[in-house]
Target: UDP-N-acetylenolpyruvoylglucosamine reductase
Amino acid sequence: MLVQSNVSLRHLNTFGLDADARYFINVQSVDELTAVLRDPEWKGTPKFILGGGSNILLTQDIDALVIHPGIKGITVLEETEETVVLAVGAGEVWHDFVMYCVDNGYGGVENLSLIPGTVGAAPMQNIGAYGVEIKSVIESVEAVDIESGEKRIFSNAECEFGYRESVFKKALKHQYVITGATFRLSKKPVLNAAYGDVQKTLQEMGAENPTIRDISEAIMQIRRSKLPDPAEIGNAGSFFKNPEIPVAQFAQLRETFPEVPGYPVDAETVKVPAGWLIERAGWKGYREGEIGVHARQALVLVNYGGGTGAQIKALSEKIQASVADKFGVRLNAEVNFI
Model:
């Protein structure tokens, strides 16, 4: 195993920010991971886990041993006429895994097409899009304790999934390295095309009896039309979570802003699109030097090239203050600040 020093992380974060790791290692297996975690040479060195870097904002260099889990592989563990259970390595590219499922007729993740990042990061964030969250298909998550090097299997319930949350972002933050996950997918899927954009795109495609491939293609068309490609403009997708507010607060908000959209979460809570709030607060298309807010999607903060994480963080705080002042709603970042 090769541990490198002073390694640029520009290629490992989708904002394309220039930050360095004091030490860096790419582990290719669970055994390699446990070996480095138990190595006396690195025992006292702080550890930082970095996958595809699609949901982080690097505001500084990382004075730690940065571990990049490159664990690959997709294995069929169990299969019936109805379902299939797959074990997937944390280092697999998420979208590649989705395409593998689509190609094989395994339904359940097609609505999550084109989400950047790795399989290992997906359960940490409980990634979701267009009516589907990953918690609905995950059976378990395999992880290694950073301190002891011991392996542990977390059941779906033990992952404590919430809206863009999991136990790995809360109670067990920085305590485990996710090395893989198992997914139960359907061979006779029930499609989720409830979102208006998805229905409209399927109609434009002429997909009268859509398949999971049609859903996937529709999602990709929508995402490409709304979101910038990180390879062309640095970004991390949705920067803020959609705020969930009490029904009474939403009713008051609608008295002042009758056009504000809202989607019931339950009997007591309504979800308001953060992008709508940011756009109505005047930030869509805003540019400040080499950073800004995307011209087509106000929920996306961008680095045009040469911006810094500190500048993007400062801009996000201005947006939060502006939205809170105008609407009385607090936006919380979906992106993790480092």
